[in-house]
Amino acid sequence: MNTPQQKPVPSRVRQWLGSALFTACLVASITPADAHNQSTAFLTIHAETRRLDVEWHIALRDLEDAIGLDTDDDGLITWNELCSRRDAVCAYALSRLHVKEHSIPLVLHFNDMLVDHHADGAYAVLRFQADRPPVAGTFSLDYGALFDIDSKHRALLRLDHGDKTQVAVFTPEHPDQEFELGDNHSQVVPFTSFVREGIWHIWTGYDHILFLLALLLPGVLRFERNRWEPVTAARPALFHVVRIVTAFTVAHTITLSLASLGVLHPPARWIEAAIAASVVLAAVNNLRPVVRESSWVVAFAFGLVHGFGFANALRALELQTGQLALSLFGFNLGVEVGQLAIVAVFMPLALSLRRLLFYPKVVLEFGSACIALIASGWLAERLLDVKWLPF
């Protein structure tokens, strides 16, 4: 069978495409090193008959960015430093959280500050209390912490009223929300919110995107005679990509479920480092192919690692089994929608360019080198991160 001939690219087109790719790589290279670490806070509110109890978990690294905790500027946050900034922490929290019932503002009184550990590090635990009207009705919450310094920040709310539970996600686009505390509005899980968060998570998780791209780049080529050659037809390439995406999906669904259910919970810091390492290895494999025809195996193996990266926030909500299952399904569905959107944009472009000399030499090789370089920076940053102390 004759090997399809590659068409040379006109010099002007080559220069334009090369400049465009270089610019894209340059923009990617200045992406913050903690590309996947998403800032998340957790609110638990117990609405008793005449009292409202609020427990708010905020990551120490987020408070450091917002008000500064590292008073001696040594890169470590200690308990004494946190205590010395107690009034500032309390003032910041009260200025960013507003609660109303029957349109009447409730005054929150600060009770206590502790420290707890989540999978991704140490969190300050702030406890507040307020008197509330004894009659159930409309309850509203306005959340505004950290949105001004991190557009990726999210706050996950669990609202308990008697034996009923409601869940909500606060974002820069939805900072205030209303709830009904009556019996007819109980056990509500905002399915569409979790779908939306799954899409947002994959689109803002640059390490996930680069890992997926590293697997997709050679999808329209085959490795023969020690070099990459274009595939003869689009159908085998599409089938190859379907296997990769399916393997990645199945793998991260497994570990996302296991981690969210509390069956497995490896330290988030090492998971984030392993995710960065997976991006490096996938990109290097494009430059020095070791795994060729079975790249779906690579997608599955590293997909298990990426699944743990998706799970931390859902587990922290401590939802009941039925609610957790619905949240898991919505979040995972959102991840898949976000993933397929990336594939839908990438594949037509890759198929149209695969016969050009430009594609294997610049898009694949130079692009993979850029991905490996960027991910190596993430890996080093995550391994050396000592911004907070697990005290």
Q: Can you offer a commentary on this structure?
A:
- The protein is an alpha+beta fold and 391 residues long.
- It folds into two domains: 11-30 and 195-384; 40-188, no CATH class.
- It is 50% helix and 20% strand.
- The chain has a six-stranded mixed sheet with strand order 5-6-2-1-8-9. Strands 4-3-7-10 form a four-stranded antiparallel sheet.
- The longest helix is centred in the last third of the chain and has 33 residues, at 321-353.
- The N and C termini lie far apart (65 Å).
Q: What's the total number of strands?
A: 12
| Structural class designation | alpha+beta
Main sheet overview:
6 strands, mixed
How many helices does DSSP assign?
Answer: 11
Strand proportion: 15-25%
Rough outline: elongated
Please list the strands of the largest sheet in the order they lie side by side: 5-6-2-1-8-9
Average predicted confidence as pLDDT: 80
Number of domains: 2
The end-to-end distance, rounded to whole angstroms, is 65 Å
Helix % is: 40-55%
Uncertain segments are 29-36, 386-391
Radius of gyration: 24 Å
**Order of H and E elements:** HEEHHHEEEEEEEEHHEEHHHHH
Question: Quick gist of this model?
Answer:
By secondary structure, the chain is of the alpha+beta class. It has helices at 11-29, 60-66, 79-84, 86-96, 191-204, 206-216, 234-260, 268-287, 295-316, 321-353, 358-384, and strands spanning 40-47, 51-59, 97-101, 104-106, 109-118, 121-131, 138-143, 154-161, 164-170, 176-180, 221-224, 227-230. Helix 7 (234-260) runs antiparallel to helix 10 (321-353).
